[in-house]
Here is the input.
Amino acid sequence: GESVGLHLPTLSVQEGDNSIINCAYSNSASDYFIWYKQESGKGPQFIIDIRSNMDKRQGQRVTVLLNKTVKHLSLQIAATQPGDSAVYFCAENFNDYKLSFGAGTTVTVRA
Amino acid sequence: GAVVSQHPSRVICKSGTSVKIECRSLDFQATTMFWYRQFPKQSLMLMATSNEGSKATYEQGVEKDKFLINHASLTLSTLTVTSAHPEDSSFYICSASGGTSYEQYFGPGTRLTVT
Here is the structure.
């Protein structure tokens, strides 16, 4: 399944399928980007980050892609599991150590 | 490592009273702490940035006299919501940074309900 960030804030995906969550960021000067997962009633949990001098970074079951030309960031989750159900936020560093968060995408995994 | 705690996790207070929320970095020294507010089904909005021993820097639109922030040590920052009103009801989240990287470590959040 695939989301288009602000226009499709929810994503429903079948367990075992791959998920793609998209994010359009605002500041072309941003040099650091992070994906967070937030479960209901909890604080954000770090998933993966990427610096602006890279266009791809892989973690365990997750991959972040950065396209600076169109100011687009995506998070790919392989073999989505029920525990992946949460809200996912992209964040960009825009000023010193401050982070600006995107609107968030709610991911629901269907069994 | 990099654990941040918040206390309390939930608080209910009457309109007009003040509420203090604590944010602690448990296993590292946080030179910078951040306070965010999150309304239901919305994103995190940065309220203020505080550096240990200095005054907090507030984001545009955030009243510094209403949201008092103290960062007296490298492991503790407090947010006091003064004269709380029902519209201040929200999820307040702190984060902490060791200052050597951009990464922020987030606390579990505090649910404030003003009646």
About this structure: Chain B touches chain A at residues 4, 6, 32, 34, 42-46, 49, 91, 93, 95, 97, 99, 102-109, 111 (CB under 8 Å).
